[in-house]
Specification:
The protein is an alpha/beta fold and 837 residues long. It has four domains: 47-149, Calcium-transporting ATPase, cytoplasmic transduction domain A, CATH 2.70.150.10; 165-231 and 620-822, Calcium-transporting ATPase, transmembrane domain, CATH 1.20.1110.10; 238-264 and 475-605, 3-Layer(aba) Sandwich (Rossmann fold), CATH 3.40.50.1000; 268-472, Calcium-transporting ATPase, cytoplasmic domain N. Helices cover 49% and strands 17% of the residues. It contains 27 helices and 25 strands. The protein is elongated, with a radius of gyration of 35 Å.
């Protein structure tokens, strides 16, 4: 330092940059925390309540005392509430008491007053889940007043998990910092014995080495890249609950799904109906409608009237339009409760048909009063409508067998006949003949009430109207997705709730399996011991009706065999397998609330294809994250080796007046530029390739040992280039300040240029970087900052730089930077046989 004023200038420059970096880190941390909180809020389930006499779905935090909670199997209980009706209701209260606790609930008053919450069987508590049964309860406490928030029952705050990447990067930061301290001590010792200088120079040498050794912004950049990718992924199709699950997604090479999970995004269209004791195929009912339309049009033409929607008389099948209208009402009402329904996606063919034959005008006569929870044996949806005369109409639709059990009468040509056992058996035979993998059958039944019915009256005594058959629309995209999975080595295991024959045919039709040897039934699976199952686990891809324990065993076995498993859950029975799997999925329109709460990824739409897109995105982004971390570490190594070589030059050449090839202020400046690029410009690369090209990541370790050479060689070459630029400039100009400016500019620009080569093969990386507008913008901004650093007089005074006025100086710097752009330093990657995707 030339003077005390110079020391003050150094302190102000370093202090100002450090304050800026601290403020920037704080802003980034706040923004990242806000993004994560937004995702968590979106992952919250909605709950069904009756408020002001109407059923509605609201966030759990919106429940207020006085709301009536509708409790169904798998539901989240959002408030402390007093039961007013309970039907075989069992609640999991382990979240409240911190231990396994299943409680059977009743709506009657307690006989013995007690202070123990465990004995309050007529109460349900917020934060718990319904395991089975159903009921209604009046909310009495919410928010901070919940029993679960009491000091005696409060659950310990969940530990925020970190990814392997975050853990290892934090370790790299400490190792580099400690190495810088040790290196500073060693060089200071050498300096004291070889060429003693003033104490201020000792401090500057130590500060420069320690600052240069710190991988600036590496931890924040890692968290930001992971968090921003999770936020970007969490759009319209999927939500990833926590950032650390992003890493597990990148490692996933197998997935276990059920029939709904793999085909849940299939559409089904109206095909035929069974009504009035006869089977009516599409050709027949389309002919009826066409004839009725022609008669109506002829009548309108004679009277010279404008055609209006009207119910066209189908006298020979009077129940047919009634069946369509009731089914349409239920399908439309069910769309408001998609998180509760496991029904496949029915296209607009039903509503279009209702509109075509003029039935839509009658929909306004039925006000949706409330949804009816399914009974203990029922597996069908049921809605209660209020009619214009203030009477009530219950309409049930869904699983035919469940509706048959609940039906006592059948409607035939407008008459209600007793539904005999023989009639039901005959109908079952018809349904069995219609059952195919590509077909779903939905039955419809009704019941009329003069007054508001009680819960028990809604579970039986239905009048059966008929059934509607829907055929699946050919999904070529799904088959192509399955094929791409198999071609890439991505393992797809299906666990069907169908018999073995149907499950096998489904697997063969999709291309999952080629023969029946890859499918197994629950009974045959039970006969295999652990050793036998271990030997065939990799060959079995289709499981027919496996139990919860068998699902868990499949996941554990595949994990032991080195697979990283994802598991698609739909119910409480899947929870154990979901917790053992590396990644768990649940769809909002297929899984109950307890399953959604325990799932790491929530599928909003897209089904199986959404999982594949998610895995591909995670693999590509995680590979880019690794490249970004390698680049930041290379920057620190380049700075340390630059100073180390400069120190050696100082000991060798007495004409050099300082042991620092770069001034400490310039080192701080370089850290600022690198920090800006890493904290803003990295992590937004274009996701290219496919599952076959983007292979599953292997973690731990985050950075494999072979990538150490890649990091070291890049740092060494950049340091050599910087020292060559310094020596050439110093020998030709004998100006230390100008040579330091050349060296600093060379180091900055070669570091910026080298960031293009930390991602896969060379030319792909360059193309990938050009596809990242943010990186281009930030890199351009950093170059402008460097020009300001060189030419602005104020910056020259603060950072001890000089203007570069000779063209050859810039040609040399540009040449070295261009070399770093194209130099093949990706030593840790093996060449791929094909880059086609």
């Amino acid at each position: 330092l030339d003077s005390s004023n110079d020391a003050v200038t150094v302190a102000i420059a370093i202090g100002g940059i450090l304050v800026f970096q601290i403020l920037w880190r704080f802003i980034e941390e706040v923004r990242l925390a806000s993004q994560i909180e937004t995702i968590r809020d979106r992952c919250e389930v909605s709950v069904s309540v009756i408020r002001d006499g109407n059923e509605t779905r609201i966030p759990p935090t919106a429940v207020v005392p006085g709301d009536i909670l509708i409790l169904i199997e798998g539901d989240y209980i959002s408030a402390d509430a007093r039961l007013v009706d309970a039907d075989n209701l069992v609640v999991d209260e382990s979240y409240l008491f911190g231990r396994a606790a299943l409680s059977e609930k009743v709506s009657s008053d307690l006989q013995n007053q007690t202070l123990r919450l465990e004995d309050w069987t007529n109460m349900v508590f917020g934060g718990t889940y319904v395991i089975s049964g159903q009921g209604y309860a009046i909310a009495v406490a919410t928010g901070e007043q919940l029993a679960i928030n009491d000091s005696n029952h409060k659950i310990p705050r969940e530990i925020e998990m970190e990814s392997e990447a975050e853990t290892e990067v934090a370790g790299y930061y400490k190792q580099f910092r400690n190495f810088g301290v040790v290196l500073a001590i060693v060089l200071l010792g050498i300096l004291m014995f070889q060429q003693p200088v003033g104490w201020a120079m000792y401090l500057l040498v130590a500060a420069a080495l320690i600052i240069a050794s710190i991988p600036e912004g590496i931890s924040l950049t890692t968290r930001r890249i992971i968090g921003s990718n999770v936020y970007d992924i969490s759009g319209e199709s999927v939500l990833v609950r926590e950032p650390w699950r992003f890493e597990r997604l990148s490692c996933m090479d197998s997935v276990c799904v059920n029939e709904v999970g793999i085909s849940g995004d299939q559409n089904f269209t109206l095909s035929s109906v069974f009504v009035d004791g006869q089977f009516v195929d599409r050709t027949m009912w389309e002919g009826w409608i066409q004839n009725s339309l022609q008669r109506a049009v002829s009548s309108i033409a004679v009277q010279n009237q404008v055609a209006q929607p009207v119910y066209y008389d189908l006298q020979h099948v009077p129940t047919f339009p009634w069946l369509l209208l009731m089914a349409s009402l239920c399908v439309e009402s069910n769309q408001n409760y998609q998180s509760e329904s496991s029904e496949p996606h029915i296209d607009s063919s039903l509503s279009n048909l209702v509109e075509q034959i003029g039935l839509s005008r009658y929909k306004s006569s039925f006000a949706n009063h409330q949804r009816i929870p399914m009974g203990a044996e029922g597996q069908f949806q049921s809605f209660l409508f209020t009619q214009e005369d203030q009477s009530f109409l219950q309409v049930a639709f869904g699983d035919t067998e469940s509706i048959l059990r609940a039906s006592t009468h059948v409607e035939v040509h407008g008459n209600q006949n007793v539904f005999t056992k023989d009639d039901k058996e005959a109908l079952r035979e018809v349904i069995e003949s219609l059952s195919e993998n590509s077909t779903i059958v939905i039955s419809v039944a009704r019941k009329n009430f003069v007054d508001q019915p009680l819960q028990d009256e809604l579970q039986s005594g239905l009048t059966y109207i008929g059934l509607i058959i829907f055929n699946s629309i050919e999904d070529a995209e799904l088959k192509q997705s399955v094929k791409s999975c198999l071609d890439s080595g991505f393992k797809v295991v299906t666990m069907m709730d169908w018999d073995l024959e149907k499950s096998t045919e489904f697997g063969i039709d999709l291309g999952l399996i080629q023969d029946r040897q890859s499918a197994i039934s629950r009974e045959k699976l039970s006969g295999l011991d652990d050793k036998d199952f271990e030997s065939v686990a990799d060959l079995l891809l289709v499981y027919s009706r496996p139990t919860a324990d068998q699902k868990l065993n499949v996941v554990r076995t595949l994990k032991r065999r080195g697979h990283s498993i994802g598991f698609w859950g739909t119910s409480v029975d899947d929870l154990q397998a979901m917790r053992v799997a590396g990644v768990s999925f649940a769809a909002v329109d297929q899984a109950d609330q307890i399953t959604q709460h325990n799932a790491g990824c929530i599928i909003l739409k897209g089904g199986f294809n959404a999982i594949l897109d998610l895995v591909f995105h995670a693999r590509s982004a995680y590979e880019n994250l690794r490249g970004s971390v390698r680049w930041i570490l290379s920057c620190s190594i380049a700075q340390m080796i630059t100073l180390l070589i400069g120190f050696g030059i100082y000991l060798y050449d007495s004409s050099l007046k300082t042991p620092l090839l770069l001034d400490v202020r310039q080192i701080v400046w370089i850290q600022l530029v690198i920090g800006i690029l890493s904290s803003i410009g990295l992590g937004k690369e274009l996701k290219t390739g496919n599952l076959q090209y983007n292979r599953p990541q292997r973690v731990p370790p985050f950075l494999p040992p072979e990538q150490s050479w890649d990091i070291l060689m890049r740092g060494v070459i950049i340091a050599l280039m910087t020292n060559v630029a310094f020596v050439v400039s110093f020998k030709t100009t004998l100006s230390l300040q100008l040579s330091q400016t050349v060296a600093c500019t060379t180091l900055v620009l070669t570091l910026l240029a080298s960031s293009t080569q930390c991602h896969r093969e060379q030319w792909e990386s360059f193309k990938n970087r050009l596809s990242n507008p943010r990186w281009l913008t930030v890199t351009g901004f950093c170059i402008i900052l460097q020009l300001v650093f060189i030419y602005l007089p104020f910056m020259q005074d603060v950072f001890k730089t000089e203007s570069l006025v000779e063209l050859k100086q810039w040609l040399g710097i540009g040449f070295l930077s261009a070399i770093m752009t194209i130099l093949p330093l990706n030593l840790s990657y093996r060449p791929r046989t094909s880059l086609t995707y």
